[in-house]
Write a structure and sequence with these properties.
Chain lengths: 476, 476
């Protein structure tokens, strides 16, 4: 595209006139942080420049300028995508549009339970602004100190609280979006109900910047839970986890905020490789669940509900051992096991990660079917099936056989991931539960989506971005 | 369109060959129930015929046939639209495609908390199928014994449980849709997480059949609440309602399932016109709230939470009197006041209804501003501002001045509703909170939507339904 457009100098000088010198980065060294791919799988990435607008009007001006000069745009938030969705692959053609300077909290309305934020707000900043007015913004995930809310919405992020509160998508009441032609759609409504035509916001949420650039959002807030109880539970088997989850939801009136499945292998790796972790239970067991119930106030019955739930499950043989945290410190120690899984994994060798989902009721059958398939395909491989089982979301990660060469193991990726994804698809599951498609899974997508669905997606892309300048090569 | 296409005889015989004789209705008398507009505002409606497919494949075949013969299609569910969305206005050109025979429950999965239903299932049937497996399907509204789930989804229905569970949209995990070209999109996924491309389901939900025909859906289920507590509360003023709502959400850990605002005028009309209703409190008050908290089991603390909430609100002057139902019969009596509002209204004379929403925190300001505007515009008019205040959804209904001629009052509709909608729009609200646009509000829409948003909607319509055969003249 570069060759076809007007001279690069014209474009850059117009861009500088639009954003000021501080708003445009062109030096290779200065661009480097924007070109770093989070998982380190892709290197030597190049961009034409980085634009740093500080208002929606500036974003719109940049997009118009890019449309005029036919410059492809890669929108970027905190650059923590796990599927390489926010970095350029165009060999230097593309402009990176970073939302980092658009980081104002525009409004907080505690009585409407809403907060209005710009796309560049770091997730943790949004959480903190909510807490200041005694409210909860429930989206929570590992990268929350770095990732930006615009990226969270563009990828429909998941995380640890989806069971109770839903994905990022479910937190949105309104959006402001700069369209591919540079017009601004002001859909920043703070309404719980609005049935006046097509729901446009859901089109842009999860579209990974391929249909437009989210510049601001009105998000839902919730009452702050003050009575949080955490248990680490040894289970009879994965099927017991699903039964216990249903009981926990029923017994607590859906106060169940987290339900994470963890196999023994994971606990072993964490205990071995992560300093300061200890085994919560006296003897080892094959499967565990980390369960959290969250009630409104410290005098409530949430703790009693959790105790009685586990007692009955123990009597019925679903649970074989359990510990309930008696303090915030003990709860943090239990969560530390879950939160350091990646650390333990990394120390154990190379790993191939699969972020898949099946219906919650099918999780045990999926693990039972996929595990031996993988173990047969590559003897010695260590299967770690853990994750947000309350959402049917299994992080089905494969750790290299001990002693195997790292690169030789990586070379097995296409074969092994095809096995995993075929099994998931046979069970009506998803090959990307919460991370998105981005660049990484784009080529796999056509094998797992119906022709009708792909065609619908292409129709929407062509209708909204006919020039194909928005985050090219991602998703489709 | 009729004139331009092939002879009607060809079309009808092909249609009969596709659906069988029972699947096609052409006699005027037999078509009459399908041509009746629910609110009775439109009469003398005409259709070419009514098609009654009993499978998605048959729906697809009908749509293909209509595409071939250029016959416009009006999809119809239970025909209870409040905005004339499911009836034809084409003077006899259109085919009504009724989903009534597609009424199977395809699957129930209690451990996945899902149910898979066909579009023609009556809402109450879905609720009952869920209850049979000890689960709740929370969508609940006045027409639930008649309306069909496909219509509920196509209009993104609201109802009395939105505060806790969200609108119809929020209940959907997957959809099956027959597209305008007759292809079937099988998006019947039962997944809590699936980030593999654009979210297509939200495009069809709330589109009122203008982009395709929803034929089946996977819906979310929830634990069945067994500890439901209902209070009828006299409030200091509408602002006290908003403060009490926030407190109720916080104190109960979001177990607040209903929060309905009711003015004294409404209670008066119900008591006067609806047999068997009694005033729940000793003395009259200007404003009331009907509040329901729903907990998991009868031994829980939900009742205590409600009592303590109201005690504190009484001490702080938000609540001036209150009664808590001590039995299911008492709770039903309290709900009867809310549920018979339309009946009381109808007995009091002609009424002009407005289904509007503003941010929850703005409800008091909206009522305070709009009421005197209307009273000044038409002296003697009786303003009834009631409804789902927990969602910011006010049914701002105007009852004719006593003694005024009914038709003369109806003639005031454009003037009065413009006043109401202008005020709503000035407060960043919605002119249709839960009923949709349909035929009734189509012409008003361009005055209240931005040009950018209307253009986006038209772009989507043109991309998905280029021939314009899907429910023409509705929404856009």
């Amino acid at each position: 595209m570069n060759e076809a457009g007007p001279p690069a100098g014209d474009f850059l000088s117009e861009l500088r006139a639009t954003l000021g010198d501080k708003g445009v980065v062109v030096e290779a060294g200065d661009m480097e942080p924007f070109l770093r791919e989070w998982r380190g799988r892709f290197t030597d990435l190049k961009a034409r420049c980085v634009a740093l607008p500080h208002s929606s009007a500036q974003v719109a001006a940049v997009v118009k300028l890019c449309a005029k000069h036919r410059v492809p745009i890669v929108p970027q938030g905190g650059n923590t995508s796990l599927v390489a969705s926010g970095v350029p692959f165009g060999g230097g053609d593309e402009l990176i549009l970073s939302l980092a300077r658009m980081n104002r909290i525009r409004a907080v309305d505690p009585l409407n339970h809403t907060i209005t934020v710009e796309a560049g707000c770091v997730l943790q900043t949004v959480q903190e602004a909510a807490a200041k007015v005694d409210r909860l913004f429930p989206l929570s995930l590992g990268a929350e100190g770095t990732c930006q809310i615009g990226g969270n919405l563009s990828t429909n992020a998941g995380g640890v609280n989806v069971l109770r509160y839903g994905n990022a998508r479910e937190q949105v009441l309104g959006l402001e979006v700069v369209l591919p032609d540079g017009r601004v759609w002001d859909g920043l409504r703070a309404l719980r109900k609005d049935n006046t035509g097509y729901d446009l916001k859901h089109l842009f949420i999860g579209a990974e910047g391929t249909l437009g650039i989210i510049t601001a959002a009105v998000l839902k807030l919730y009452p702050l839970p003050r009575d949080v109880h955490t248990a680490f539970v040894a289970l009879r088997d994965p099927a017991a986890a699903i039964e216990l989850l249903a009981r926990a939801r029923g017994a607590s009136g859906d106060r169940c905020t987290s339900f994470e499945l963890i196999p023994r292998l994971t606990v072993d790796l964490v205990l071995r490789h992560v300093p300061g972790t200890t085994d919560p239970l006296d003897a080892p067991h094959d499967w565990y669940a980390l369960i959290e119930l969250s009630g409104p106030d410290a005098d409530g019955d949430t703790g009693a509900v959790l105790e009685s739930l586990l007692e009955r499950a123990f009597e019925d043989g679903l649970v074989v051992d359990a510990t309930i945290a008696q303090s915030a410190a003990q709860a943090a120690a239990l969560w530390r096991i879950r939160e350091t899984v990646s650390e333990g994994e990394a120390a154990a060798g190379a790993s191939l990660k699969h972020d898949v989902a099946v219906p919650v009721s099918q999780v045990p059958a999926f693990i039972a079917a996929a595990t031996p398939e993988i173990e047969t395909a590559l003897p010695g491989v260590r299967v770690m099936a853990f994750g947000h089982v309350g959402d049917g979301n299994v992080h089905f990660n494969l750790i290299q056989p001990e002693g195997m060469d790292r690169q030789a193991f990586y070379a097995e990726w296409p074969r092994l991931s095809t096995l995993v994804h075929d099994r998931v698809t046979a069970m009506s599951g998803s090959i990307s539960a919460e991370h998105g498609i981005g660049h990484l899974k784009r080529d796999a997508l056509p094998h797992y989506k119906s022709a009708v669905e792909l065609d619908l997606m292409r129709t929407l892309k062509a209708a909204l971005d006919p020039a194909g300048l928005m985050n090219p090569g991602k998703v489709l």
